[in-house]
Amino acid sequence: MTELPTSASGPSTGPASSQAAIRLQLRSWPEVEHYLQSCRGVIVPLGSTEQHGPTGAIGTDALTAEAVALEVGRRTGVLVTPAQAFGMAEHHLGFAGTISLQPSTLLAVLHDVVLSLARHGFERIYVINGHGGNIATARAAFAQAYGTATSRGLPGADRLRCRLANWFTASSVTKEARTLYGEREGHHATPSEIALTLHLEPSLSSKQRPLPEAAPAGPIHGPDDFRRRHPDGRMGSDPFLAQAAHGARFLELAAEALAEDLRAFLTEAEPAA
Ligand code: NI
Asked: Ligand 1: distance of its center to the CA of 1 in Å?
């Protein structure tokens, strides 16, 4: 076992904290040093800044990842870093407002985030992700970070673990989305993610309006090809079905599932030497 919270008073099993208390941005460095004496876990929200159909917010994936991360942090007492709001969204660049990192750039960013945290003694890096396009690159970044931690001789290199948790694929979330929206959940600018943004930012409801049927999901190539296949940006989804109350429910389900997953991750036993 590594030095992780195992007692009832440890951050992973203690009472819920306030959101302010678990935001790394609001801590001082001595407070972070103190935190590391009882917990080696940290949550990194990972989003994207990309089009979400004609009525969805450009920041949907970053807003949702951060909200879920803060709620998981509040429930577990685990620190939450600032959100990485730019993700790999190359295929969305045909739509105004999208800001993308190339896969190699995102890989370098995540690699450096992990190595910075590992240098201070963080050993469980829990990335809460809001965007499917980040998954392959995040996994590659973790693989590279493990190698660098070892080659740099970081003291905790052999105990360093990174985990990617996609809030939108938690089984309770996908089940609820199926119940509420059926096939009209679709694959991009989905009513479930839009519902969560409506819950977080009520002003977004003013954009909601009925839309014609979306182009079905299909292969994704470059940005021009994407726009030809999916002219309004949606992939098989009907975001008009989204309601703020659904969003509150999705936040609850995602936070519940990921908090449980994070607790298991923090207390995972090391294999016998
Ligand atoms: Ni999205």
From this structure: 36
